[in-house]
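Sequence, please.
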C-alpha cells in the first residue's frame, strides 16, 4: 500500500495490486515463459504422463503480433489461457482522500442571525424594564453652610443697624430700610471717561432695582491720598458721580460742613461734602434726583472716606445722619457672634 501525502509521481511505489497473484509467496515468476504449469501437472517430468497436444492458440486480444503488450510486457504473462486466471489489473496510485470544504448553508446563517437578534432584543427589554425612574445622574445631597464668626457692635442711632469692620474697629449705622453687607465689596470699573471706585464694609438699599444688580442706593468706605479731609471728600464724591451716573448729569455741591469722629477715646475733626445730582434722561430706570455725600477723616498722608448715595427714597437728612454716625468702636463694645448654619 502506498503512503498518503507523498508529492510527485513515482513508478516504484504508491500503488497496490487489485488482483491477487497465484504462485508461491503471492507472486508469479515472470522469467519462465515456456513453463506455464511451473513444473507441475500433466506433461511434467514429475507426473510421468505424456504431454498433451498443444491447444489452439487463443485469441491474443490486444497484444501485438510480436507477443508483447504495449509497454514491453510478454503476452503470455497475462494471457488467461496461460496463467489460469483473469488478467492482472493495472496498478493504480492510491491518492490521499481530498478533504472537501463545505460551506455553511444559507439556512445556517439565517438561524445564527435570528438567534443574535433574539438575544439583543432580550437584553434591550431587560434594560428598559430595570431602568430606574429617576435620572441616571446622582442626586445632589443637601449642603450645610456654616458662616464664619463676625464682630457685632451696637448701633448709636435708635432703630438703625450698625455696619462694622471685620475686626470691629470702626462702624457706622444705616436706616431700617437698608441692608448691612459688611463682607461685600461693590463699585464700578474705571473706563476712559470715568475713574471707577471700590467700596468696602458696605450696605445697600433697594436691591433688584431695574435688574438683579441694580440698587437705589448704597454706602461704603474707601481711601484717598493726601491729608486734606475736604479735598478728599470732594474728590470721592466726584469720582462716584462720574462712575455711577450719566456724564451729562447736573451736579450741585453744597458747602462743606465740619464734623467730628470719636476715635480711640478722642474726638477727631472731619469734613462732610454733599452734592445733588440731576439726570436729564427720563428712562424707566433713570433716577432723576440723587444725593451723594462723603465724610473724610484725614491723617498725615491719607484720608479715610465714608460715602453714601441714594435716590429720593432716602431723605437728605438721613444721608447726613448716616455720615455722622461714623466712629471708632472700643474693644469693650465689640462682641463676636456666629450666625446659625443654613442648609440648601
Amino acid at each position: 500500500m502506498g503512503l498518503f501525502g507523498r508529492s510527485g509521481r513515482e513508478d516504484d511505489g504508491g500503488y497496490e495490486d487489485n488482483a491477487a497473484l497465484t504462485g508461491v509467496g503471492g507472486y508469479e515468476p515472470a522469467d519462465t515463459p515456456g513453463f506455464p504449469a511451473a513444473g507441475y501437472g500433466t506433461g511434467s517430468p514429475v507426473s510421468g504422463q505424456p504431454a498433451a497436444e498443444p491447444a489452439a492458440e487463443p485469441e491474443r486480444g490486444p497484444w501485438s503480433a510480436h507477443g508483447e503488450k504495449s509497454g514491453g510486457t510478454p503476452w503470455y504473462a497475462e494471457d488467461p489461457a496461460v496463467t489460469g486466471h483473469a488478467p492482472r489489473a493495472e496498478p493504480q496510485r492510491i491518492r490521499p482522500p481530498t478533504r472537501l470544504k463545505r460551506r455553511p448553508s444559507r439556512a445556517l446563517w439565517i438561524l445564527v442571525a435570528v438567534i443574535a437578534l433574539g438575544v439583543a432584543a432580550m437584553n434591550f427589554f431587560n434594560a428598559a424594564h430595570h431602568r430606574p425612574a429617576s435620572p441616571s445622574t446622582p442626586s445632589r445631597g443637601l449642603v450645610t453652610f456654616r458662616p464664619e464668626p463676625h464682630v457685632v457692635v451696637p448701633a448709636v442711632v435708635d432703630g438703625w443697624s450698625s455696619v462694622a469692620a471685620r475686626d470691629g474697629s470702626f462702624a457706622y449705622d444705616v436706616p431700617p430700610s437698608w441692608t448691612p453687607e459688611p463682607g461685600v465689596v461693590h463699585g464700578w470699573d474705571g473706563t476712559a471717561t470715568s475713574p471707577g471706585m471700590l467700596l468696602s464694609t458696605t450696605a445697600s438699599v433697594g436691591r433688584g432695582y431695574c435688574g438683579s444688580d441694580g440698587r437705589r442706593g448704597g454706602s461704603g468706605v474707601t481711601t484717598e491720598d493726601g491729608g486734606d479731609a475736604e479735598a478728599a471728600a470732594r474728590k470721592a464724591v466726584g469720582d462716584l458721580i462720574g462712575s455711577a451716573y450719566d456724564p451729562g448729569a447736573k451736579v450741585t455741591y453744597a458747602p462743606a460742613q465740619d464734623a467730628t469722629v470719636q476715635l480711640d477715646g478722642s474726638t477727631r475733626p472731619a469734613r462732610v461734602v454733599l452734592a445733588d445730582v440731576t439726570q436729564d434722561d427720563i428712562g424707566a430706570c433713570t433716577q432723576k434726583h440723587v444725593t451723594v455725600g462723603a465724610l473724610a477723616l484725614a491723617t498725615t498722608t491719607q484720608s479715610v472716606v465714608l460715602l453714601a448715595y441714594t435716590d429720593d427714597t432716602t431723605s437728605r437728612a438721613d444721608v447726613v445722619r448716616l455720615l455722622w454716625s461714623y466712629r471708632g468702636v472700643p474693644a469693650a463694645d465689640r462682641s463676636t457672634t456666629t450666625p446659625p448654619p443654613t442648609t440648601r
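The radius of gyration is 63 Å.
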